[in-house]
Amino acid sequence: MDKNTKEQMNEEMADVQLIIGKILRLGVMISATVMLVGLILLIVKGNGGYPNNAFPTDFTDIWAGIATLKPYAIMMLGIFLLILTPVLRVVVSIYSFYREGDNLYVVITTIVLVILAISFIFGILR
């Protein structure tokens, strides 16, 4: 590998690291904003939109609650977005390791992504 190719790879990896940082910041800001909207609605409405202070626990209830502006459903969406933020970081890391040619880390990070997906699926089936 010549010097120019190495420098180009280093610049590309620095760009990928900047993108990862932006993804994490943006994900946290978006989820915090959604949760803040839910909190404001909770304060304005005086209740969470569900009887006995229950809250939605599956996607169909959350989406139905969002459609009717139920505060707890909107806050659950914010939590879901916060959980997805590091998952997206794992996906971008797989790409980054692939571009670097670091196959060991591609495999390890892919295993982490599969474990996250399996835990997510088992959480839904629960």
Describe the protein's architecture and organization:
The protein is mainly α and about 130 residues long. It has one domain (about 5-125). It is about 85% helix and about 0% strand. It is built from four helices and no strands. Helix 1 runs antiparallel to helix 3 (about 70-100) and helix 3 (about 70-100) runs antiparallel to helix 4 (about 105-125). The termini are far apart.
What labels describe this entry?
126 residues, single chain
Secondary-structure topology with pairs:
Layout: H1 3-45, H2 59-67, H3 71-100, H4 103-125
Helix pairs in contact: 1-3, 2-3, 3-4
Short characterization:
This protein is mainly α and 126 residues long. The chain has helices at 3-45, 59-67, 71-100, 103-125.
